[in-house]
Amino acid sequence: MEFSAVRQPIYNARKNKVAYQVSFLNRKQLVNKCIPSVVFQDKSDPRKLYELLTKAGIDYYSDNKTVIIAFERETLRGVFDYFFPSRGLVIELSPMEKLDDDLLELVRIGKSRNYHMILGEKVLLTGNEEFLKYISHVKLDVANKPPELVQALVNKAQQNNVRVIIDNITSDEEFQKYSTISVDFFKGDVFSKQDLVEVRTSKLNEGTLLGVFQHVMSDDYCYQELTDILASDIQLTHKLLSFLNSVLYGRKGSIYSIKQAVCFMGENKMRKFVSLLTAQELTDTRPGDIYTKAASRARFCELLAMTMGKKRAVVDRVFLCGLFSNLPDILGLDMEEALDMLKIHDDIKKALTGTEGELKRLVDMVIAYEAADWQTLEELTEGSNISVDLVPRLYRQMLKEVKAETYHVH
């Protein structure tokens, strides 16, 4: 049983990842991101909801954390026939659902059966207070809302002992503001961005690694020159040799010299290795998710291009496009300034600054999938040799590889 789904992290006030929101693709209504009702049609053992969810592939997305899944009311009505013994599932009612007496009764039943349930911010409006008795969380979208309104809504939730998930946090300033009023959970782009501290004084600007990166990204790649650059930095040499002698390659022998390493890697694999290492070093003092997001997006782009039968040059370059597509978050610079600093190849630079082409199209597919923007994804895949149904398989493969750390060089 397979479904198109994507996960988006939820954080606590300490910026630790505590849960994942899982959104599903519903072809008949793209804005509806609820779990498909077909998952629950097998009622052979109504005591084992967890087994059904595992069969549906939820284990790919949970990563041993709580999973938040949106339900439509009719699907939810059926779910109450099942038994779910852990606190690993939180049910969110679709924001498209009307807050009527029928839904209130469903929420009451859910509460009586120890389900944790989320409703949208409409529940905080006057006249809907009865729902607050039965839900555990409310999700509050702060985009385009004045701070005083957000504060009033948060106060109302807290007065009713309902925990708050602040959605669409876009800046560290916003996060700091809402974390001081004891909001419990947060979701938004800010958690994949740095805090903009020391953004223009990266330790790599004058370091060997940046020189290596700029060399492997150029069209004048020279094995001897690269060997000479690497030889000037013992720490970087150690990282390269350790990497090559790791179990990742499963080699019987070992590589002992820089020249051996450079020749063994080859131009494309060396470019990928140095790019991943550069991204890792640039994000070393930043929030931990930045590098993971960059590397995950890079591998997702690469898998997509390979599946579509793109040439090796395109596969390699779209990997780099994905890796550096969030450079502004990593460096605190605008995209063009960041690309200029790192001397990124022109093809990649054009794709990341908005020039239409196959590289940009591939990156846009990945970004649309990450954002659960199903409408855009369908538009981007239309006319291509890849179906929307195949994309989630590649996404799950990427998650598996990133978790196992087997995605670095292919």
Describe the structure.
The chain is an alpha/beta fold and about 400 residues long. The chain folds into two domains: about 5-190, Alpha-Beta Barrel (TIM Barrel), CATH 3.20.20.450; about 210-405, Hypothetical protein af1432 (Orthogonal Bundle). It contains 18 helices and eight strands. The protein has helices at about 50-55, 60, 75-80, 100-110, 145-160, 170-180, 210-215, 225-230, 235-245, 260-280, 290-305, 310-325, 325-330, 335-340, 345-350, 360-370, 375-380, 390-405; strands spanning about 5-10, 15-25, 65-70, 90-95, 115-120, 135-140, 165, 185. An eight-stranded mixed β-barrel has the order 1-2-3-4-5-6-7-8. β6, α5 (about 145-160) and β7 form a beta-alpha-beta unit. α12 (about 310-325) packs across α15 (about 345-350). The longest helix has 25 residues, at about 260-280. The protein is elongated.
Offer a few descriptive terms:
410 residues, alpha/beta, TIM Barrel, Hypothetical protein af1432, 2 domains, eight-stranded mixed beta barrel, 18 helices, elongated
Q: Can you tell me the number of structural domains?
A: 2
The 3D shape can be described as: elongated
N-end to C-end Cα span: 29 Å
CATH architecture designation of the largest domain:
Orthogonal Bundle
Number of helices: 18
Beta fraction: 5-15%
The SS-based structural class is alpha/beta
Sheet with most strands: 8 strands, mixed, barrel
Can you tell me the CATH class of the largest domain? Answer: Mainly Alpha
